Amino acid sequence: MAKGVKPRVKVPKQASVGEAITIKTLISHKMETGLRKDADGNKIPQSIIHRFTCDFNGNNVVDFDLKAGISVNPYFQFEAVVPESGEFKFTWYDDDGSVYEKTKKITVS
Amino acid sequence: MIFAKKILTTLLMIFGLNVSTASADESAELVVEGQPILTKTKAPSHMENIDEVRSGWTFRIKETQALQMDDFENPGMIFVDKGIDLWNKVEGSKNKSCASCHGDASEFKGLRTIMPKWNVSAGALWSMEDHVNNCRTEQMGAEPLKWGKAPMDSIVALIGLQSRGMTMSVKIDGDVQPMWELGKELFYTRVGQLDMSCANCHEDNYGVMIRADHLSQGQINGFPTYRLKNAKLNSIHARFKGCMKNIRATPYKVGGDEFRALELYVASRGNGLSAETPSVRN
Amino acid sequence: MKISRRKVVVLGMSAVSASLLPLNLLAQADGQSAEDIVKEFTGGANIGSGDIMLTTPEIAENGNTVPISVESKKAIAIKILALGNPGPDVVTFKFGPLSATRSASTRIRLRKTQDVLAIAKLEDGSFIQDIQKVKVTIGGCGG
């Protein structure tokens, strides 16, 4: 697991059926591009979050493929519709094999 | 590569390439999480050459400004989160964390607005970092944190955040006066190969483009600040050091008397503005 | 007069900077050119215009963190390319059944002033694009 990685998500606690809700996510990650060299001139290998997904009660909301052109501390904002109360699951996939997860409940009325 | 970059930088400086097309929204109002932040106000009476003091926020383009208006979008808050983790981490020979004595950081609401200030028992001008390290070594039996590194900056940002929206009111007389005078002298003293003082940019030329950058008044009411440039929190002294390198001067020591004095003087130039910690700058 | 002088300076500078840049920096990081990436995404299909909006700042204060957003109501996926980056492929947004508006915002890295391209794949299998130029400024103090 890369050092100091911390996922954050912002989801409304409540929504009505069919309402478009805004979701924001941010994960602290250095997103090493693979283009830099260290002090000795050796290439620093790429190490990024390469995929992010958001699911709700097992159904997909978004699935993003990230490349090194995404800034440090990847931030995303998108919208979801939720048919019922349940749980969002957010997953970030790191090049180093680590998987970071976060869940958020929402009440739909 | 580094060599090539240096040549490029030098050439750019020689040509004075000026793409002065900044679109800073100078009239925008800063509201963070519903809380209004005062970004322009009458200059404190000790300032002789400026009538209105302005937060660095007012010099940034609207996209950068927006990052500070929402705590979720403010990348500096990632570091505040890390500061909370560190706040609660038990360390040292006495098995204590910051939280063991202080509960949560809200106990320090208002502290940011009066820093740096004279510490009577130490008989010295203290920055926020001194409070943190004094607690660590004396109360926790832990190692002091290094100034200008992520753990220290995160804790300082967490403490500073408690005062966000409160008015900066650094004391400049009494015991601290000699340091304030020293800070003022440093602010106006030309140094380095470019022979420039703080005032040359931040008093004589704020609002002007320096190459592609919109010069601010050099206010520190939002520090530690998250900079897009290096994607991390930047401490007051680290920023001073950066400025001195830019004018090809040998920087004073981070945590040394010169920078402490300068911190006091520069902070006092922001008296009347709101604390903005953690701010977002370019 | 002023403008023409600046143009001359800028042209001169580009020539100087291009000759100073080591070749390996000009090469694509992942070996894929923008054309290859687009072709892979579209399968060589024609790309039209239509209901797609890419929003970028006209000028980015720092190329490290450039906020962008894109929306295309009938998209099932939108690919973002930074045509002047060493690796032009930036991100692909794929929208699942529970996504509402087919929109997404993120922050991207731009090495220099360049065009940012968004290509949407629509539900009917067609492709549309929007392109925006972003000026990336060179910082004053210390870049």
Explain the overall architecture.
Chain A starts with 6 loop residues before the first strand and ends with a strand. Chain A contains no helices and eight strands. The mean pLDDT of chain A is 93. In chain A, 0% of the residues lie in helices and 51% in strands. Chain B is of the alpha+beta class. The longest helix of chain B is centred in the first third of the chain and has 14 residues. In chain C, strand 5 and strand 6 form a beta hairpin. The longest helix of chain C is centred in the N-terminal third of the chain and has 19 residues. Chain C is globular and about 50 Å long. The interface between A and C is medium-sized, with 32 and 34 residues. Strand 6 of chain A pairs antiparallel with strand 7 of chain C, so a sheet runs across the interface.
Taking pLDDT < 50 over at least 5 consecutive residues as the criterion, the unreliable ranges of chain B are 1-22
Oligomer: heterotrimer
Total strand count of chain B, please?
11
Straight-line N-to-C gap of chain B: 24 Å
Biggest interface, chains and residue tallies? A-C, 32 and 34 residues
Largest sheet of chain B: 3 strands, mixed
As for the number of domains of chain C, it is 1
Helical fraction of chain C equals 10-25%
Number of domains of chain B: 2
Can you tell me the CATH class of chain C?
Answer: Mainly Beta
* CATH architectural arrangement of the largest domain in chain B: Orthogonal Bundle
CATH-defined superfamily of chain C:
SoxY domain
Short description:
The complex is a heterotrimer of chains A (109), B (282) and C (143). Chain A is mostly beta strands.
Main features:
B: 282 residues; alpha+beta; Cytochrome Bc1 Complex, Chain D, domain 2; 2 domains; two-stranded antiparallel ribbon; 10 helices; 11% strand; C: 143 residues; Immunoglobulin-like; six-stranded mixed β-sheet; three-stranded antiparallel β-sheet; 3 helices; disordered N terminus
Topology:
The complex is a heterotrimer of chains A (109), B (282) and C (143).
Chain A (H helix, E strand, L loop, with lengths): L6 E4 L3 E2 L4 E8 L21 E8 L2 E8 L8 E7 L4 E9 L4 E10 L1
Parallel strand pairs in A: 2-8
Antiparallel strand pairs in A: 1-3, 3-6, 4-5, 4-7, 7-8
Chain B lengths: L1 H14 L14 E3 L2 E3 L2 E3 L9 E3 L7 H6 L8 H12 L10 H5 L14 E3 L4 E3 L1 H13 L9 H12 L15 H12 L9 H5 L6 E2 L2 E2 L10 E3 L4 E3 L1 H11 L10 H12 L10 E3 L1
Parallel strand pairs in B: 9-11
Antiparallel strand pairs in B: 1-2, 3-4, 5-6, 7-8, 9-10
Helix pairs in contact in B: 3-6, 7-10
Chain C lengths: L1 H19 L2 H4 L7 H9 L4 E2 L4 E3 L3 E2 L5 E6 L3 E8 L6 E7 L3 E10 L5 E9 L4 E10 L7
Parallel strand pairs in C: 1-9, 3-9
Antiparallel strand pairs in C: 2-4, 4-7, 5-6, 5-8, 8-9
